[in-house]
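Much of what follows relies on a compact textual record of a protein's fold. Each token is a code from a learned vocabulary of local backbone shapes. The record below shows the convention in full.
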Amino acid sequence: MFEVAVEQTFAAGHALRNYKGKCENVHGHNFRVQVVIEGERLDETGLLVDFIDVRDAMRSIIDRLDHVFLNDIAPFDVKNPSAENIAEYFYREISQTLKSAVPVRIREVKVWETDVQSAAYRG
């Protein structure tokens, strides 16, 4: 099994609805997102997937989320903008856009809110 991982960062504000604690207040994070792609074989160039293609797929999402208040944009205007839900959002969005010459799948998307706290989503 081969695996490729790409990380990107973005800054955004959010407030967790019904949290009953400090995080229910408006606050922000420098989020770090890691997407891990896996597959059983490589293409004729010797790649599972091009790092640039993964980066570009992530960047198209990050461009929508960077320096905004997440609670104001879909789907987080309805769904709580937790790290868990952000990870699932990246997973679903990238699954629809990522192209590869060989069969690949997203193994995991991990989102860090801080250097020591993260949440992951696996489909």
